[in-house]
Write a structure and sequence with these properties.
By secondary structure, this protein is α/β, with parallel strands linked by helices. It has 14 helices and twelve strands. It is elongated and about 80 Å long.
Amino acid sequence: MRPTTKDLAKAAGVSLATVDRVLNGRPGVRKTTVEAVNEAIERIGFERNLSAANLARGRSYRLEFLLPKQGDQFLDTLLDRVDEAQSAFAAEATFVRCRRAVDTDPHQIAAMLGRITREDTDGVALMAPDSPQVRDAMLRLHERGVKVTALVSGHSGELPIDFVGVDNAAAGATAGRLVGQFCGGRTGKILVVSDTMMTRDSVERRHGFDSVITADYPGLTALPTLETYGDPDRACRIVGTAFRNHDDIVAAYVLSSEARLSLEAIRNERDLSSLVTLAHERTQYTQAMLMTRALDAVIAQNPGHLVRSAIRVLRARCDNREPLASQETIRVEILLKENLGQTTDDPPD
C-alpha cells in the first residue's frame, strides 16, 4: 500500500492540517516543521497524488508561451505544436496560450515581462535573445511567483530559470564533426551564417563547432559568422561578398534555427552540390533540401517535445516538484536523406 497523508503526518509527528500546508507550500509553518515533513516524505516513500489533489482543490495551471514576432518555418512549427498542446493538456486542467510578442530589443522584452503578474499566469516559456536586461527581468518575474523557462536558447543549470532545448554546444560540435568528415580531407574555408549572434543558442553552437574544427581538421578554417538579421537583401549582399573575397570556400554551415533565408542566399552564389552544407532544424524547406541533396545533413530537435517538455517543467515547478530529467532531455538528432522516412516530426516522449 502506498503511504497516505495520515501515514506522513504520523511519521513527521504533525497534524494533517500541517502536512496539507507543507505539501501546498502555504505559509505559517516553521522551517523545522517543513524539514521534518520533507524528511518523513523521503523516509516512508510518500508520493503525492497530484491529480486527485488538484481535482479536490479545483487547481489549474495557466501557462503562456512568449515567442518572437519575426520568424520563419521553424517558428511556424513551434506554433503548430503549441496549438496541439492547448487541446491535449486541457483535460489535465492545464490552459496554454501563446503570444508572438518578443522583439529583438532587450528593453522591450524586459518591459513586457515586467507587466506579467501572478494574477495573470502561473508560468512562462520564453524564446528570446540573451541579454543582461532579459535575464534580470526573468529573475524578477520568478521572484513575483511566476515560474519561468527559457525555450530553445538558454543554459541548463542556471536555476531558478529552467531551460528546455538541446545542448547547443553539443549540437554545434556535432555539426563540426559532420562537416569535417564530409569534407573528406579537402582544405579550404567554411562559410558560417546566422540570423544573429545575440541569441545564446547561436553563440553556443558556434563555440561547439569551432572546438571540433580547430582541434581535428587543421586544413579547414571557419570564417567569422555572417549575421543576416532576417533581412533577405542583407543576406544576399554579405554572402555574395564572402564568396567574392574567398574563392576557396568548401563548406557552409547555417547555425541559426531559421535556415531558409541563409541557404537561399548561398544557393544564389554557388551550386550547393559543390559544397558540404549543414543547417539546423527540420522544416519543410530543409527537408526538401535534404531530399535533393542540396543539404548534406540537418541537426534537429523535436519541436513537439520542446513544447510538451516546457509545459511539464512549468507544471512541476508550480507544484514544487523537480522535473523528471530523463523525460525532459531533448535529443540532438542528425537527419540525412536516407533516414527522413525513419523519423517523424513528433515521436512520443
